[in-house]
Design brief:
mainly alpha; 81% helix; 7 helices; single chain; elongated
Amino acid sequence: MIDNSEIYNYSQHGHTRDRLKGLASGPVKVQDQLPNQSRAAKFNAWLAVKVTSGVGTMWCAYAFAILAIVSLPSAIASGSPVVLVSWISQTFLQLVLLSVIIVGQNVLAAAADKRSEATYEDADAILHEVVQIQQHLAAQDKILAALASRLND
């Protein structure tokens, strides 16, 4: 008679075991990345998120554009191309593009978060499907072992 352990000895991966028991966490979230040690670190992270959230809006980009345009007449009146180029690069582009880039990064990050969540859910579903396949194969192994033992008798 052929013993199932002679055919294949299954050893479940630790992460799979933890996932099936509900011990493993889901996908990493921004909240998981924030510091949680000292009050100063928490405050600094909170302030940075608030400033980034405020500056990372199109309304802030519009406000920065208006602010930059206020100084445009004096750059033009100077008559110096160097001053005008300096105004374009240091005033307008840096102020306006800062907010626009942050807005774009926020949009891209939101899309990446959705993809990450979907990938995690797909992987979780696959894990459960694989467990079902393993159970099915184990049941087939028992039947095959019984058939093999009948043939050997």
